[in-house]
Design goal:
Length: 346
């Protein structure tokens, strides 16, 4: 009975998190602005960090933009920023504005007010139908909908198949090389980093299997959770291996951050991460195959014990791939190419 009650409480909390805040509209008055609706979520979240980063990029390029929170005075504190913040109660959206709405609000999108141009920022296509009645599209009848914004080719393919009549644009995340970068010339100790927010039970099972075999002896597992961005980056630089635990991801930011930090990444791609975790410099494992995950991690650990420089060299190749591919410059170009014409549209 206690477990059932806990499940009901969590389900109710989930439903509340998907409710749109009250949004007001008014007549157009001057130049439009891009508002990124954002949950009032204080814990570290890659998706929320991406929203703030998009607003920073647009603002720095001269396009008026702001993160739109529900609760007056709220802003994220787990990373440093000077991001423009606005609050739903104090804003009147006009036809000149662009309202960017995360996909998690899908069940309530039909209730958006008429007026602003609407873009759904779908950072995880696999959440698109969560909370929706069977057979119903979250985008049917959404007033002012101009398109969907995705963060990976995998997710764009999903959305284009499900919604062939809606334009889909991909803007991949940028991984900040000023924050995430390999450490010095020294060889890190035997440490395995992982983020337990997803697949915690799978991680525990893998480590238990390795411990039972005696493989884990002499190794430290480093759970990274609830850390700031800079703290996460500092920990990753001390770990030669990273265990990827994503499931049905929008992109796979934790493995990309680990790769840019010089880690050799082993684990699940979360599907979207296939474009990041290339087999030339990482060790992707078939989704949900926990035994294969344990085997792959044991193999990587053994290689590091025998020849740490070769494993570090692969981590260096991975860092170079992420540094060249997911650059702030590319993201800036893609964001401006998408939002500049949208602001000019009637």
């Amino acid at each position: 009975m206690i477990e059932a009650a806990v499940r009901r409480v969590l389900a109710a909390r989930e439903r509340r998190s998907r409710r749109l805040p009250p949004l007001r509209v008014g007549p157009a008055g001057g130049r439009g602005r891009v508002y990124f609706l954002c949950p009032d979520h204080a814990a570290p979240s890659g998706g929320i960090r991406t929203i703030y980063r998009h607003v920073d990029v647009l603002s720095a390029a001269g396009l008026p933009a702001a993160v739109l929170h529900r609760r007056p005075g709220f802003s994220c504190r787990w990373f440093e920023h000077r991001t423009p913040i606005a609050y739903a109660r104090r804003v009147r959206l006009s036809p000149a504005d662009v309202l960017v709405v995360p996909e998690i609000y899908g069940p309530g999108l039909h209730a958006l007010p008429r007026g602003p141009k609407v873009v759904v920022f779908n950072q995880n296509a696999y959440l698109t139908f969560a909370g929706m009645p069977p057979g119903r599209s979250p985008y049917e009848g959404v007033p002012g909908l101009r398109g969907l914004l995705a963060v990976s080719g995998d997710n764009a393919d999903y959305l284009r198949f499900a919604f062939p009549g809606i334009p889909v644009t991909v803007v991949p995340p940028a991984v900040d090389p000023e924050v995430f970068h390999p450490g010095g010339d020294g060889v890190p100790g035997r440490r395995i980093a992982f983020m337990p927010r997803k697949r915690r039970e799978d991680a525990e099972q893998v480590f238990a299997m390795l411990a039972a075999r005696g493989v884990l002896e002499g190794w430290e597992t480093v759970a990274i959770g609830g850390r700031s961005e800079t703290e996460t980056a500092a920990l990753l630089r001390t770990c030669p291996l990273f265990l990827a635990l994503g499931r049905r991801e929008g992109f796979g930011l934790p493995p990309a951050e680990a790769m840019l930090s010089g880690c050799y990444v082993v684990g699940f791609t979360g599907l979207a991460g296939r474009e990041v975790m290339l087999p030339e410099f990482s060790l992707p494992v078939e989704e949900d195959d926990v035994r294969a995950l344990a085997v792959a991690l044991a193999d990587a650990m053994g290689r590091y014990e025998k020849d740490p420089d070769s494993v570090r060299a692969l981590g260096g190749l991975a860092a170079g791939h992420v540094r060249r591919t997911y650059t702030p410059e590319r993201q800036r170009h893609d964001l401006l190419a998408f939002f500049s014409p949208l602001l000019e549209q009637e």
